[in-house]
Amino acid sequence: MEEPQKKESDKRGNWRKTVKVSLGILGGLSLLMGYISATGMSQSEGEAEARKAVDDFFASFNAQDQDSAKRCLHYPHVQITGTETIMWNTPEELDLNFGHLIASEGWHHSTIDSCTLRQNCKDKIHFEIRFSRYNAEGTCYATFQSIWIVTRTDGHWGIQGRSSLPS
User: Are 40 and 125 in contact, with CB atoms under 8 Å apart?
Assistant: First the structure.
């Protein structure tokens, strides 16, 4: 075989090997995701209880009930907004500044647009949450994509961390 033809043949052989390896990896990942979907992401009692913590937080937040909202969280509690990370070690450290939210944004209430379980185990669930903020006229002025981590500690489900992308 001539040298250029041999090089071209070697390139095709390497390309085929790369494709086979890539397809094998993708196939393995597909099987893994199927397994996770079938076993780890099924509806469960834990999911319903964890979701209740999320719903209760939104209800408390909309009622501007600081104490009730704090009881929906686990501590230390982490919130990541954009690139800013805030951690509250105790409920006493957390101040849900409703006055600032109202004055700066005209906030009136927030809604959960979607709440989808993404990962779970016995004592921890990750929800992908899309929520919106509305003014007093009922106009939506901001929508956020978030990941909320809800954990069970001492038999109680609470929100441990939240990470939101900017509106």
Answer: no
| HSE value, Cβ hemisphere, 13 Å, CA-based, for 111 | 11
Q: What is the DSSP string of 56-122?
A: HHHHHHHTT-HHHHHHTEEEEEEEEETTEEEEESSGGG----HHHHHHHH-EEEEEEEEEEEEEEET
First to last CA, the chain: 61
Q: How many Å apart are CA 97 and CA 62, to the nearest integer? A: 12
CA 34 from centre of chain: 20
Q: What is the pTM of this model?
A: 0.72
3-state secondary structure of 114: strand
pLDDT, one tens digit per residue, over 115-163 is 999 998 889 999 999 999 999 999 999 999 999 999 999 999 999 999 9
- Encode pLDDT of 32-82 as tens digits: 444 444 445 445 778 999 999 999 999 999 999 999 999 999 999 999 988
Report residue 143 as tokens. Answer: 């929508």
Q: Which of 156, 163, 134 is nearest to 71 (CA)?
A: 156
Bridge partners of residue 147, in order along the sequence: 128, 163
Helix and strand counts by DSSP (H, E) for the chain:
4, 6
Cβ neighbours around 69 below 10 Å, total? 22
